[in-house]
Each structure stands twice: as structure tokens, then as C-alpha cells.
Amino acid sequence: MRRQADARRKFEQYVTDAIDGLPDELASQMDNVAIVVEDGAADGPLLGLYHGIDQTHRDSWYAGVLPDVITIYRLPLESRARSEEQLAEQVRVTVWHEIAHHFGISDDRLRELGWD
Q1: What is the mean pLDDT of the chain?
Q2: Three-state DSSP class for 16?
């Protein structure tokens, strides 16, 4: 049980490191968003999921709204990684990918930019 708790804490640290690694000008623009870690998605092998109203769709009516939620799924990411370094990198890519959705960047645009 302790080993699982240690693995989860290490994974959560990778998520924190990914957030801390954002350029300051980008991190300062994040607004009303929570980032959480869950073991896995009920809908299948997702690595991460953004749920909310991205910044390009916010207007003067946007007030008193619950935070957007970025969920990072631990078990699918861990199952893909062959090393701790690879896991840390995949977590970073996934966190940044979902944060891009918070800023209104679509999956199609991310693919165009090389973020498959």
C-alpha cells in the first residue's frame, strides 16, 4: 500500500513540475482552472481531459462560474512509460496539451503544431 502511495506522490510531483515548467507569460494567463489527478477515465484509455469553458469562449457573462477542470489520468500514462524519465516527459506533454485546450487550442491545431 505504501508503494502505491509513493508512486502516486511521485506522479503528482511530475504534474506539479509540468505546471511549474510553463513559461511565466502563459502560466500567468491561466484563469479559473483546477488540475487534478485520477487513476483512469471511465470512458477509456484517455491520458488527460479538459472540461470547461475555454478562454476564447468567455465573455462578459463569465462570472461566478465553477473552475474548469483538467484531469490527468495516472494509470494510462504509467502503463505507456518504459522509464521514470519517459513518464515525466509524457506527463509534461499531457499537462501542456490539456492546458492548451484551456486557452482554446483545438486538437487539430495541436497536431498542426506537432503536439500529437
Answers
A1: 91
A2: helix
pLDDT in tens, 9-27: 999 999 999 999 999 999 9
Dihedral of the CA atoms 61, 108, 72, 81 (nearest 10)?
-170
Going by C-beta distance under 8 Å and a sequence separation of 6 or more, which residues neighbour residue 90? 47, 77, 80, 81
Query: Which has more pLDDT, 105 or 87?
Result: 87
Q: Find the mean pLDDT for residues 96-104.
A: 94
Supply the DSSP symbol for 46: -
Between CA 64 and CA 72 the distance in angstroms is 25
Domains of the chain, first to last: 2-112 (3.30.2010.20)
Q: What is the pTM of this model?
A: 0.89
Which one, of 101, 91, 45, 29, lies nearest residue 70 by Cα? 101
The single-letter code of the amino acid at 78 is E
Give yes or no for a contact between 75 and 4, defined as CB atoms under 8 angstroms apart: no
